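Quick one, T. Sequence first:
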Amino acid sequence: MGMIGHYEIRELLGEGGIGQVHVGYDTVLEREVAIKSLRSELLNDKNFVDRFRAEATSLARLNHPNVTTVFSLLPEGRNLYMIMELVRGDTLDALLKKRNGPLGVKESLAIIAQAADGLSYAHSMGVIHRDIKPANLMVTQTGLLKIMDFGIARVRGSQRLTRDGSMVGTLAYMAPEQLRGEGGDERSDLYSLAIVLYEMLSGSTPFVADSDYDLMQAHVHAKPQRLVGRVPGLDSRLESVLLRALAKKPEQRYASVREFSDALGATALRMDAPTMVLEGTRLMERPGAAQLAANSGSFDRVSRFADKLSPLMSWAPPRLRVPLVVGVSTFVLAGVLVIGALALIPSPVAEVSAKKTVAAAENVARAPEPAAERAQAPRTAKSEPPPASSLQPATPVAIAPTAAPVDGPPRTEPVPMLAPARKSSPPPEAQPRAEFKAALARKSYDEAFELARPVAESGDREAQFILGWLYYNGQGVERSEETAASWFKKAAEQNHVSAELNLADMYEAGVGVPKSYDEAFNWNRKAADQGNAEAQNRVGFAYSKGLGTQRDDLQAVIWFEKAAKQNFARALKNLGDMWLAGRGVAQRDVQEAVRYYAKAADQNFGPAEFNLGYWYENGFEGQPRDVQKAAEWYKRAIEHGYAPARPRLENLQRSQSGESR
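Structure tokens:
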């Protein structure tokens, strides 16, 4: 799209009242950046430009893990460009929309802990953000929170970065003093952060109105609705802290964001906050969110149920009513979670298998695929390479079904096993190639290396792939991951599918090459474009998770369907997951999900057999409970290498033994 200095302009990320933000590429340091440009009408105001330049200089001094870094202010022609850190992830606003309901108390406090850290640091440097809202809080793929968009920030003591008489910020999150046209200070950011917390806990901002005027009046005059009794796990002490931070007058609030965080108890969570946020946002795809909301009711429904219980507690002393309501709602919530988990196990249709849907999100990257053993010796040229370690299901558990595709990244095992090319038939007339392949077949790796090296150096992609495999495995030559990657890349650049897949694995694991989801996606996409089913499934998974590309559920379904048409088991399962969750499809359809699960299970896919056993064991959606069939399916799952079926079978046998006595 063009160049600005040594920055290559790529796709547009967004635009707003200040200007546009593009993804850029620093051609000197070889890294992606975000590039913000000013609106043309603002460039005509010399005072505005001068103040923007002075404040950008101050903002560039900010260096904190919870604050997006500003690298430089670059003049180019008449325009000014803010060069900033590019943060990959989802905004808190997007996560709340996916959740379609409130977050838990601990997850909310973990987010506040990180936001408060970043804001406290900015305030200590004299910088007031003035537009704190969920859309400006980015949650990265590691759970780290980044405060975004200091575009309307003000340095303490400087002139306001707006035209006279105008307001800055977003009405739903603006402090009363900002609405009156005052500049605001640290306590204005505190007020906005308190509204963010209120929204995370309740699912809505405290003030909602039909017009901007009414919303402004609510900020200035109305009291926020109390949350105790509506938010499970929220006690009166935390509510009091929150309501104080929402005081109409700045002097009635806490003196600083740090003091607010301390009073909430959020500061004590700082060390574990990213992990807590990561696990909490993963609930977007657990029964507590997308699935449970679609079946048995979300946390928000349980909260409303708690409201209904309040009148029934009239017999209790007033000071005990709220704890009793919260306790009852928590008990009901636990029951809903279990029922919701059980209700999501797909139904068998005439002895067909329902694919694995039960998997706690925290286990997604832990349990390796037992059915996909990794060969230690080269396979024949026609055999396909072993599935990458990314293609591994989560460990199914009885109470945490998930409809998110899990047969894919992120990985825990550092490197996939590598194997020679799949499906490409070596030309029989190529005598040198036949010779090193014969040596491989004999497992004479020293000889294979010596024979393949000159052929690889001549540009033969098959020999290049084999050479990469030998270097990676240390067969016939000293093991070198870096050299293996270089030979894989040579072959991959000639459209060698297995080389593309293995190179993608190495980029994703950061083995022999710098870790890069972007590069992994690109190489998987190249293989997918050549019709490789495994690569198509990987591309679908990347789109479903936003790994190396923007999350796009529709694209995920499209790529899963491509692989499913080739009867690729993992893609069939992932496509079933998308139907079960209602992601990327017209609407949620359990029977359509079952159809795809069945096809995957017909390939002796252990997780599918496990789910069918689980289904028969519990008997859902009209399916009669059949312990004998459940045991049979669990046994099949165990036979096909799916270890989690064993404890289920043992528990089933113990319960049956107890009943018989």
